[in-house]
Amino acid sequence: MKSIVFLCDGMADYPVSAFDGRTPLDVSRHPNMDKIAEGGLFGLARTVPHGQKPGSDNANLSVFGYDPLVYYTGRSPLEAVNMGIDLAQEDVAYRCNLVTLRGSDNIEECTMGDYSAGEISTEEARELIQAMDKLFRTDKVELYPGVSYRHCLVLRAADTGAQLTPPHDISGKPVRDCLPKGVNGSLLLDMMKRSFALLKDHPVNQKRVAQGKNPANCLWFWGEGRKPALTPFAEKFGVQKGGVISAVDLIRGIGRCAGLEVLPVDGVITGTFETDFDAKAKAAIRAFEEGHQFVYLHMEGPDECGHHRQVQEKVTCIEDIDKKVIGPVMEYLENCGEDYSVLLMPDHPTPLCLMTHVSDPVPFALLSSKYPVDNTGAVFTEYAARATGVMVPRACDLMEKLLG
Hints:
The chain is an alpha/beta fold. The chain folds into 2 domains: 2-72 and 229-403, Alkaline Phosphatase, subunit A (3-Layer(aba) Sandwich); 92-225, no CATH class. Helix content is 35%, strand content 20%. The protein contains 15 helices and 15 strands. It has helices spanning 24-27, 31-39, 56-64, 68-71, 76-82, 122-136, 185-199, 203-210, 233-237, 249-257, 277-289, 301-307, 311-334, 382-387, 398-403, and strands at 2-8, 41-45, 92-102, 111-114, 141-147, 150-155, 162-163, 181-182, 218-225, 242-245, 261-262, 294-299, 340-345, 362-368, 391-392. Strand 5 (141-147) and strand 6 (150-155) form a beta hairpin. Helix 11 packs parallel to helix 13 (311-334) and helix 12 runs antiparallel to helix 13 (311-334). The protein starts with a strand and ends with a helix.
């Protein structure tokens, strides 16, 4: 039995005025997604439990089969695990974004110009984070470079309780009321203010400004948490060889915490709509050929388009995923000579009109070669999923259905 999750991050959306009230899923062409909906269980699933804020962390935990109400301890520790950072149970981790603030030399008077600093390159970002680490590092404070704008701060033997705001929630908005408060808030704010005063003059940013790019002129901390303890995937679901394909530390970190293998991809994997989708498909097929029973194939592109309000790019991204990833992998599975199962879904909506996550239930389709369903004419869209009347209140229950 071979099983795969096609996780299209942030793909669900709200009606878009530029599309006459239709969503990107409505206007894009995705015959392979539709085929999965036609042959499987099709409806809506709630990935974010009531009372939790919508994020790729708790939503993907749900899809992996782990109830966030039981297992969720914060976003950053999951990323830290993938980055190879050794966390003790008393340590606290934070996501550290390199962002672009605009409007003033006073951080309190700024707006959030770009939560990703123009999708800064990993090489440029590493130089900036290492410079900040030299400035701030003590036996209690450590900064670690990651990928593009995504990095990690660790406070050793610290308390939790900071009040923090994800920067992608406030794109184009004033930051005054979103600066750190609560436990560790004064320390985090001081680091942000000092970075804002110094980063603008760093050669990396001077060069970026000269090239017309957004400068990475401030550190922004969020996603507080401690090291999680996930029941091993093999123990929980009986899958002895499984893997994860993603460009994102968070998703890789969930996989590692669950005891899954992070699978290599022979291509340029950016996490944006320009990522090498063909290479991701080939990596999934290779994993199955090498004996993996399960693959979690995560594609970040639609989410990034939603955060940046890239309307047409989101449509193109959905079509590329369907054609370049889902099509080839489904063709392989249909001809592999074994039973297979497929779960297709987003983790959460990232509406273009809001440029951030919402906790609405998302469309899903779960197809099994052993138990085919006749949904002839089904199309994988938000409205069509809602019209089925199928509602899974806990998306974490879908993994057992997929693997069982």
